[in-house]
Every structure is written in structure tokens, then in C-alpha cells.
Specification:
The complex is a heterotrimer of chains A (about 375), B (about 230) and C (about 110). Chain A contains 14 helices and 14 strands. Chain A is α+β, with helices and mostly antiparallel strands. In chain A, the strands form three sheets. In chain A, strands 5, 6, 7, 8, 9, 10 and 11 form a seven-stranded mixed beta sheet that branches. By secondary structure, chain C is an all-alpha fold. Classes of the chains: A alpha+beta (about 375), B alpha/beta (about 230), C mainly alpha (about 110).
């Protein structure tokens, strides 16, 4: 009851300075919105990336030569298949294409024509030369649709015409937006890549627990190769979206710095008015504990409101409105942008950390300066005024 | 008769051990009986306000003892001292010390927040205190919109809302003209009639010559120089 | 006690809204894992994809896991020329799980 009554007074006290209270609330909420959006977005993308990409190759073997990534001879397949534990080895053919017309980078990906149809593809996979399937981003940038023609310039500067037999649905944009998919043979011809070479090798193993051992064996049998295991690949994505990494940290530190300045400003100067008020409260019979409870409520009332509404706004921005501002920062300056509608995976531990890192300092910066005024005799505080 | 308040050789020095140390009260022994109206008289700087602070448990004496309702309060821990202050005394300050941005009602309610009272009981007590000073109609107004006399009545209502045994007033007529002073003293007389003990610090003749005053204690330079009936 | 009730109601409303959204998120993500994920895994496995098509401005942002960070004079992902995606992409760092023991071959 006493807590509620002091909350009542704390709210009355906050409402006495509506301008200041609103300003703090807006800044505070904005900070929470930015931080929570980054958390929500990166966590969602991270989870989505790692769950989806777990379906990819268990091991990729690249060749290096003279300190550079090189095409790998297909003959290496035989060497690798002999390694015990290896189930299958598949040469992968893929590469990049710069489209001068739209200033866009495409990824050209070859595939095994024996593959089944895909549920995320409108139309069908290409089967022969002169056919391709494209990502929704490519279709958007070139203004083409199913059964239209896509003209690409090959290695010999000859324009090649491909019929679009399939367009990936935009729900799969995160994986496919810049893809141009065609069978392996035609892609080799397009790149001018000899049949004896491949971009890299995808290795399938019987027992996923043995991947590291097998990678070691591959490294022994092909000393100039670089095996990349799936766990390394997934860890890369963890690192990319890690909230302690890169942009996140930059954003976080600057927002936190601004917030610290605000808190410092509050902490160092208890205004004469506030000091006098504490004196009056003590004179009319408030305990030091009551005064501190009042200040605690003042801080907590504001931070709880800011934190909850900030999280709410961030949630709506990220998962419903497709991250209007932050998305731009995250996606960079490339020409193709996937629609950022991540699946809402939420990490409560991170939210808890965010709450801890914002609410506690703010409340402390409200309570601690009041302490000094609250422990002195009321008549001394009032004499000063 | 057992006195309600007693001080024994009480001293108060502000900023001790510093260059600007000032002894405001220098060994005063006095007492106030229940139901009495006592005036502390003296020129400004004579230690009236400091003595009021000591008597009202607003501060602790540097030496000597302050005894309220038979209990020595000068050595009590802060929480109990606050409790004694809240339950026994009501204060009317010279500057009123109201919180300007709050309404009359919220200002009067201030002493009730730390008490274990229901919202209804709080409302009832505030209404009663406001009725006592005839301010019921202004309850929702901000105190800054009120005249000086009205502000003082708010301060009196705040002092009375906790149903104290002693009303302490510091220069209550300092900001009032003689007509309003007369009204105020009538109000004090009525309160005394109702059983309240009054301790008033003043140098206004209109106050200490008023018939409600039982005893005058004269102070000079923090010392008691004369004590006697009105 | 009107203000504290109103405030606590507001907090309760916000908490309920957040709880509702969280529930929606749990449901949506569960649906994704149950229905959406198999189709995406099939896509990844058929095309043997290794990376997200999230940044298309540079090789190491398009395929961060395949990037040849080992090569000398490779652009550093923290370089400003690929700001801001480049600066989001903290370098994963050389943390190979595969290690190599090098031995000198005995002379015959």
C-alpha cells in the first residue's frame, strides 16, 4: 500500500515537469527502439540463417594457389571419394556476374539437373541450355517475368539469351534474390570454364560427427586445399550477426554514451528545487527510506514505460513493417535488397541484458544523487533555500 | 505535571569544526506543557528558528537533551526521530514551504503518504483539514495561484492533517497584514481551545500580546534571557 | 490513487501487448520451423547453397563463409569501402577447426 501511494506521488511529481519528463521519455524510448530493433533483427536473421543453411553441404573443399582462391580440378573427386567416411563428392560450379545495365551483381549457380522440383519456385527448374531460373531480385531489377528472356554477356563478350523457366518466390529472397540458376553444362560454357575444373567441391559424409576428422584427412591428401566445414560456415553467420560485433557495437556504444551523458547530467546536479522538495518531504515526516523509494519509483516508472514501449515499437518495426530505417543501414549500398521480413525468433536472454543495461543505470542515476540530499537533516536543506 | 516537551541545556552549533561555525542555541533549558501556547520571542538571529527545529525533531542537538512525551529523542535513530516528528508535530514554516507545482489537495496530503492509511482515509483527512482552514473550494487549485494568506492556510492544513499534538509556527504573521494576522490568531486560539499545544516563534507584538499566549520565552544570542507569563 | 492505477494499467496493457506479440512470434517461428524450413532446406540442398543473399556488393559479403580471408591483400571486411554492410560484417577470424601438423620428410 505504501509502495502504491509513493508511486502515486512519484507520478504526480513526474507530471509536474511534463516537458522534461516527455523529453527524457522520448530519448529513452528511442534508444530502446534502436537497440531492441538491432537485437530482434540480428537474432531473427541469425537463427533463420543457421537453421536454413544447415541443409547445405557438410563440407566444402576449395583450392588455393599462390595465396588465392583457385578453381579445383575435378580429378580431385576420385582422391576424396577414397577417404573412408566420405559418402559422395560433388563438384560445384558457380560464379559472379556483374550486370552493367543495372549495376547489379548476380550470383550464377549451376546445379545437378537430376534434382527434384522446388516448392519455393514459381515455374520449373531449367533443364537444358538456354533456360534459367532467377531470384525475385533479378526479376525486379531487369523487369522480367516467367517465360521472358534474360540476356547475359558471356566470357567471350557474346550476348546469350536465356528463357526464364522459373522465378523464386520472394519469401525465399534471403537465399535466392540475386541467383541465376542454370544446369552445370551451360554454366561452364557461359563462364568458359573447362570441364576438368570446378569452383569447389561439396563433400557429403556418412557421420556428421566425423566431419572434422575427414576435413583433416582431406587436408593431408590435398595439401593445397582448404576444407570449410558446415560448423565453420554456421559460425561465420553467428559472428556476422553477433550482437557484440560490428555495427551493433558501434550503435550500442554511441547510444549508451548519449545515455550516460544524460544520466551523468542528472547524477551530478540535483537542482535547488529538487533539493528543497526533499527537504520539505523530510520536514513533513518522510523518512530517508521514503524519499529514496520515491526516487526509485520516479526512475523505475519512467524506465519501465520507456523499455516496454521501446520493445513494442521495435517489435512492430522489425517484424511487421520490415525495418524501415534500420534495414537500410544493415543492408548496405548494394543494388539488390531482399525484403527484410525475418521470422520472429526472439532471444529473451538478450532482452534481459538490454533491460539490465538500461534500466539499472537510469534508476541508479535518479536515486544516488537524491541520497545525499535525503540523509541530511531537513532543517539544513531548508535553511539553504 | 509531566511536560510534553522539555529541553535540558540544549546547544546547537552549525558547521562545527569549520571556520564559519555558528552557535545558534547555547544551552537552553525550557519546557512546554500539554495544551499550552508558548511564544519564543527575540530579534532575528536570536536562535528562535533553531530552537523550534530542535524541539520539533527536525535536527539533533550538538549537546544537551530534548525530551518529547517523556522520551529522549536526541539520540534516536533517524527512522524513529522521523516517526516522532510526523506523529507529534505539525509545522507552519515562515516561507510556507509548499511544493509550487502541486495542487492544494496534494500539498496537504504530503504528510500522509508514509502512513499506513487507505486512499479513502487519506481523502477524508485532507478534506477535514481543508474544511478546518476553510479552503474546501480551492482543493484542486495550484498553490501558486493562491494569495499569501491562502497559501498560509494551506500550510496550516498540511500541519494539521496528521492530527498532531503540537503545532509549531515560525513567524506566522511575517507575511500578513494586521487584519489577516488577527484572523490567524483567532484560528490559533480555536486550535488551542481544541486541545492543541502551540509553540510560536515571533517578534511581532500583535502575536505575543494576544490573550491566547500563556507564556513568553525571550531569547537573545541563543540564550534564554527571560521567561514569564504573558 | 488515480494516477498509479492508470500507470499500472498502462504497464499491464504494454506487458499484455508484448506477451501477445511474443506468443505470436513463438507461433510464427514454430510454423516456420515446421512448414517453411523443410522447403528452404530442400532449396539449399538442391542448389548446394552456402550463404545468404543478404549483401550483394562484394564477394566476401555475398559469400562470407567462402571468403578467402587467408589470401594476402584481400580487402578487410572492416574496410570502409564497403560501408555499411562491410562494417557490420566483423571478420570471422581465422578459426579453422582443421589443423595441420607439418613434418619434415626424412631424406632417403
Amino acid at each position: 500500500m505504501r509502495y502504491l501511494k509513493i508511486l502515486e506521488y512519484a507520478l504526480a511529481s513526474l507530471l509536474r515537469r511534463p516537458g522534461k519528463t516527455c523529453a527524457i521519455l522520448v530519448v529513452y524510448t528511442l534508444m530502446i527502439v534502436v537497440l531492441a530493433s538491432v537485437l530482434f533483427l540480428t537474432q531473427a536473421l541469425k537463427t533463420e540463417a543457421t537453421t536454413m543453411l544447415a541443409g547445405g553441404p557438410q563440407l566444402v573443399v576449395q583450392k588455393t594457389m599462390a595465396g588465392r582462391h583457385e578453381l579445383i580440378p575435378v580429378s580431385a573427386v576420385e582422391k576424396l571419394v577414397e577417404i573412408p567416411g566420405v559418402k559422395a563428392v560433388k563438384p560445384r560450379v558457380w560464379g559472379y556476374y556483374y550486370d552493367a545495365l543495372t549495376g547489379t551483381n548476380y550470383t550464377l549457380q549451376g546445379f545437378d539437373t537430376l534434382a527434384n522440383e522446388l516448392s519455393l519456385l514459381n515455374g520449373r527448374l531449367p533443364r537444358e541450355e538456354g533456360e534459367c531460373a532467377i531470384g525475385a531480385g533479378v526479376a525486379r531489377s531487369r523487369l522480367i517475368h516467367l517465360q521472358d528472356e534474360l540476356i547475359l554477356i558471356d566470357y567471350d563478350n557474346i550476348g546469350r539469351i536465356f528463357t526464364v523457366t522459373g522465378v523464386f518466390v520472394s519469401a525465399a529472397d534471403l537465399l535466392t534474390q540475386d541467383l541465376v540458376v542454370m544446369p552445370e553444362g551451360p554454366l561452364r560454357q557461359f563462364f568458359g570454364m573447362p570441364d576438368s575444373l570446378a569452383t569447389d567441391l561439396a563433400v557429403e559424409v556418412y557421420n556428421p560427427n566425423e566431419v572434422d576428422t575427414i576435413a583433416n584427412k582431406i587436408k593431408r591428401s590435398l595439401p593445397d586445399s582448404r576444407p570449410i566445414t558446415q560448423s565453420e560456415l554456421l559460425r561465420t553467420y553467428h559472428a556476422v550477426f553477433d550482437w557484440r560485433g560490428g555495427m551493433m557495437l558501434a550503435l550500442f556504444s554511441s547510444a549508451l554514451m548519449a545515455f550516460c551523458i544524460l544520466a551523468w547530467d542528472k547524477a551530478t546536479g540535483l537542482s535547488a528545487g529538487e533539493r528543497r522538495e526533499i527537504g520539505i518531504l523530510k520536514a513533513v515526516g518522510w523518512d530517508t527510506g521514503d524519499v529514496l523509494l520515491l526516487k526509485l519509483w520516479e526512475g523505475l516508472a519512467l524506465s519501465l514505460l520507456a523499455f516496454l514501449s521501446g520493445c513494442l515499437i521495435a517489435f512492430i518495426l522489425v517484424f511487421w513493417w520490415g525495418t524501415p530505417v534500420l534495414g537500410g543501414i544493415l543492408r548496405g549500398w548494394s543494388v539488390l535488397f531482399p525484403a527484410l521480413r525475418p521470422t520472429p525468433f526472439i532471444d529473451f536472454y538478450q532482452l534481459g541484458t538490454l533491460a539490465f543495461l538500461t534500466i539499472i543505470p537510469y534508476v541508479a542515476s535518479t536515486v544516488i544523487p537524491a541520497w545525499r540530499a535525503a540523509v541530511t537533516d531537513p532543517d539544513e536543506v531548508m535553511r539553504a533555500s | 505535571m509531566n511536560p510534553l516537551i522539555r529541553t535540558e541545556e540544549v546547544c546547537k552549533t552549525y558547521h562545527p569544526r569549520k571556520a564559519d561555525a555558528t552557535q545558534a542555541v547555547a544551552g537552553i533549558t525550557m519546557q512546554v506543557a500539554s495544551g499550552e501556547a508558548v511564544v519564543l520571542k527575540g530579534p532575528s538571529g536570536s536562535g528562535k528558528t533553531s530552537l523550534l527545529s530542535l524541539v520539533g525533531c527536525m535536527t539533533r542537538p550538538t549537546s544537551g537533551r530534548v525530551i518529547v512525551t517523556g522520551e529522549e529523542v536526541s539520540r534516536l535513530p533517524e527512522r524513529f526521530l522521523t516517526l516522532v516528528r510526523r506523529r507529534t508535530f505539525g509545522f507552519v514554516f515562515q516561507q510556507y514551504h509548499l511544493i509550487p507545482e502541486l495542487s492544494v489537495r496534494d500539498n496537504v496530503m504530503l504528510p500522509l503518504y508514509p502512513e499506513r492509511l487507505s486512499a479513502n482515509e487519506m481523502g477524508r483527512r485532507v478534506a477535514a483539514a481543508l474544511a478546518e482552514v476553510e479552503l474546501t473550494g480551492l482543493a484542486r487549485r495550484r498553490v501558486t495561484e493562491l494569495s499569501g494568506g491562502e497559501q498560509q492556510r494551506v500550510a496550516i492544513a498540511r500541519a494539521l492533517v496528521n492530527e498532531p499534538r503540537v503545532l509549531i509556527a515560525d513567524e506566522p504573521t511575517a507575511h500578513l497584514d494586521s487584519r489577516l494576522s488577527t484572523v490567524l490568531l483567532e484560528r490559533f486560539a480555536a486550535l488551542k481551545q481544541a486541545g492543541l499545544t502551540l509553540v510560536i516563534a515571533t517578534h511581532d507584538p500583535q502575536v505575543y500580546t494576544h490573550p491566547l499566549v500563556d507564556r513568553i520565552i525571550e531569547l537573545h544570542d541563543g540564550r534564554l534571557c527571560k521567561e514569564g507569563g504573558a | 490513487m488515480i494516477r498509479s492505477r492508470a500507470y499500472l494499467c498502462l504497464i499491464a496493457v504494454l506487458l499484455t501487448a508484448l506477451a501477445g506479440l511474443t506468443g505470436w512470434a513463438q507461433k510464427t517461428s514454430a510454423t516456420f520451423l515446421a512448414d517453411g524450413l523443410p522447403a528452404r532446406r530442400q532449396l539449399v540442398s538442391v542448389l548446394s547453397l552456402t550463404d545468404l543473399a543478404l549483401w550483394t556488393e562484394a564477394r566476401y559479403t555475398r559469400h562470407p563463409s567462402m571468403a578467402d580471408l587467408f589470401s594476402p591483400f584481400q580487402d578487410h571486411p572492416g574496410a570502409f569501402d564497403h560501408f555499411p554492410a562491410g562494417s557490420l560484417m566483423a571478420p570471422a577470424g581465422p578459426r579453422p577447426e582443421t589443423t595441420m601438423h607439418i613434418r619434415r620428410v626424412a631424406q632417403p
